[in-house]
């Protein structure tokens, strides 16, 4: 089973820059996207063989998530609970017989940290949401989580301590998730690599020099550890200021079926 996730920073623009080429090339069972930046009816994607699930933000041209999947889910929910009004379109959860897939675009705490308190409240809700799901069946939690967890996840970590996405408070929230039954799949395969990033500023030559942050993740319940096959960060794929991330799992190792 293959899962890909990508913050496309505007899916209409990303489509013009080659999104569909990568989409068809990777041929994922599940393809999660964040920051779609559109409303219903503003794009038609002809993705033969895929079910499409969208969560649009109320604000035009802002936020939003989607999942394209070859496998019809048992249930789809938006937000932290069924029926919740989730105005920024940041969460989609697909339920399958043996696992949940949770696609998330985590709120940014803003450059001046004016949204940090709201961000930390979000993190608390997300932690309890993942814990609740995990008591029922394994969880795959993916998306742009807007935090660089460790110093090796930021090229210039010393000058970025305390900045949005690299505050102690935000990093501690990620640590709490990983200390309570979840695995950061990239660090599972590459525990010490300090040159793997998923986001780069649009400033000139920044991406070419790989001065980036790792803020896009695929995190899984510990129950899926034996199923982990490979993890890849597709830094050569352009079209957004983020790059795609993909994970392959062999669910048969846990006698799990989609």
TrEMBL record:
The keyword Metal-binding applies. Its cofactor is Mg(2+). One of its GO terms (molecular function) is double-stranded DNA 3'-5' DNA exonuclease activity. The keyword DNA repair does not apply. It is an enzyme of class 3 (hydrolase). Pfam families: Exo_endo_phos. Its EC number is 3.1.11.2. Coiled coil: none annotated. Residues 4-242 form the Endonuclease/exonuclease/phosphatase domain. Keywords: Hydrolase, Magnesium, Metal-binding. Belongs to the DNA repair enzymes AP/ExoA family. This is Exodeoxyribonuclease III.
């Amino acid at each position: 089973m293959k899962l890909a996730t990508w913050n496309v920073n505007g899916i209409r623009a990303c489509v013009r820059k080659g999104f569909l080429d990568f989409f068809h090339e990777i041929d994922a069972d599940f393809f999660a996207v964040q920051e779609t930046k559109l409303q219903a009816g503003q794009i038609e994607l002809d993705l033969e063989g895929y079910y499409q699930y969208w969560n649009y933000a109320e604000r035009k041209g802002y936020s939003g998530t989607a999942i394209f999947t070859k496998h019809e889910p048992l249930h789809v929910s938006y937000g932290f609970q069924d029926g919740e009004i989730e105005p920024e379109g940041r969460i989609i959860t697909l339920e399958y017989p043996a696992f949940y897939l949770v696609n998330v675009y985590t709120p940014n705490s803003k450059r001046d940290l004016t949204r940090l308190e709201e961000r930390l409240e979000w993190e608390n809700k997300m932690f309890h949401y993942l814990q609740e799901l995990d008591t029922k069946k394994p969880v795959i939690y993916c998306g742009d989580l807007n935090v660089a967890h460790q110093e090796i996840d930021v090229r210039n970590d010393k000058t970025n301590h305390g900045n949005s996405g690299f505050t102690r408070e935000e990093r501690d929230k990620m640590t709490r998730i990983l200390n309570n039954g979840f695995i950061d799949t990239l660090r599972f395969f590459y525990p010490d690599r300090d040159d793997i990033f998923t986001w780069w500023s649009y400033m000139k030559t920044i991406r070419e020099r790989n001065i980036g942050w790792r803020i896009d993740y695929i995190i899984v319940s510990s129950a899926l550890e034996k199923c982990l096959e490979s993890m890849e960060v597709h830094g050569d794929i352009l079209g957004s200021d983020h790059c795609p991330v993909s994970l392959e799992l062999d669910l048969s190792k846990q006698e799990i079926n989609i």
